[in-house]
Design a protein that fits this description.
binds heme C; 2 strands; mainly alpha; Cytochrome Bc1 Complex, Chain D, domain 2; 193 residues
Length: 193
């Protein structure tokens, strides 16, 4: 940084005077102006990224994403029981992955809404979002049913097709439409035509 040159005779004097102290009307140094302009340009980019477009994550979001990922890693190797499946159903990593599995493998019969016959009588599979369950509504019962299927009724056996990871994810996705403690109403299976 160059030293500020002493005021030249051309620098005009400002009109005010404080206790006899006068002030030159000096141009601000270039390095100072440069910093100001750069910060204005930076502000426009920063503000639009976080506030206008909402593209950037806030600190809180970064932390909760990281926490969800850490919990997902832990749950992925946890034994499959009701407690771990309920936790998976509240974990965005499992639910998002489970939706992908569901939409490509299950929606043909249960519909993308999961509501199956509850939404359209033409659907093959039953509603997976209501309180009525033919085979039980505890997470492990749902998991086991998906694993084994009900071949006589047209529900395929999924465990060999999906593998353990996707089985957990898709069960988590279905259970994310339910809450722990929701009533479980036993339904009799519809008669096969
Ligand atoms: C070819 C059609 C078909 C596909 C594909 C299918 N299902 Fe089913 N699903 C059914 C039918 C039919 C039933 C009813 C079985 C019964 O009544 O016993 C059923 C029942 C179920 C049930 C038990 C519901 C209850 O009330 O107990 C669950 C859970 C389920 N399916 C999940 C899935 C998942 C998850 C997938 C994808 C991985 C899937 N289904 C794919 C046809 C299908």
């Amino acid at each position: 940084m160059k030293p500020v040159p002493p005021p030249s005779e051309e620098d005009a004097l400002r009109p005010h005077s404080f206790d006899g102290i006068r002030e030159y009307d000096k141009r601000l140094p270039n390095w100072w102006l440069f910093t100001l302009y750069i910060s204005i340009v930076f502000w426009v980019g920063y503000w639009s990224y976080f506030e206008w477009f909402g593209a950037g994550q806030t600190g809180g979001q970064v932390v909760s994403t990281a926490m969800a990922r850490i919990e997902a890693d832990r749950l992925a190797s946890a034994p499959v029981d009701d407690a771990s499946l309920w936790l998976m159903s509240q974990n965005p990593n499992f639910v998002t992955a489970g939706k992908v599995v569901f939409d490509s493998n299950c929606s043909a019969c249960h519909l993308v809404s999961l509501r199956g016959k509850g939404e359209s009588p033409a659907a093959i599979g039953p509603d997976l979002t209501d309180t009525g369950w033919v085979h039980g509504g505890r997470p492990t019962e749902v998991y086991d049913l998906i694993s084994k299927g009900v071949l006589t009724k047209g529900m395929p056996t999924w465990a060999p097709v999906l593998g353990a990871k996707k089985m957990g994810e898709v069960t988590a996705y279905i259970m994310s439409r339910h809450k722990e403690g929701d009533p479980i109403v036993r339904e009799t299976p519809p008669a096969t035509p």
